[in-house]
Design a protein that fits this description.
about 90 residues; mainly beta; 2 domains
Length: about 90
Amino acid sequence: MTIIEADGIETVPETVDSLPVLAGQRYPVVVYANQPVDNYWVRAPSDFANQTFAGGLSQAILRYNGAPDEDPMSTPGPYKLPNLNASIPDI
């Protein structure tokens, strides 16, 4: 996915595999649907896993047209924090 904005401020586009989002933050992103037809997890882990519903994991299924109606088989990968400071212009 490519981050195009952070909290209402346009950024230098930054392509990332993961993105930390805390309460009140907004990051519009572009997701490129260029993978084989299948089902894919979209996961949003929380830094407050022990204090939230479902162990802090929010999740959804991204399902391509023509994919079977079943859960994806993938497991969570390593969570990498991108350095976004350089992408946000000075105000």
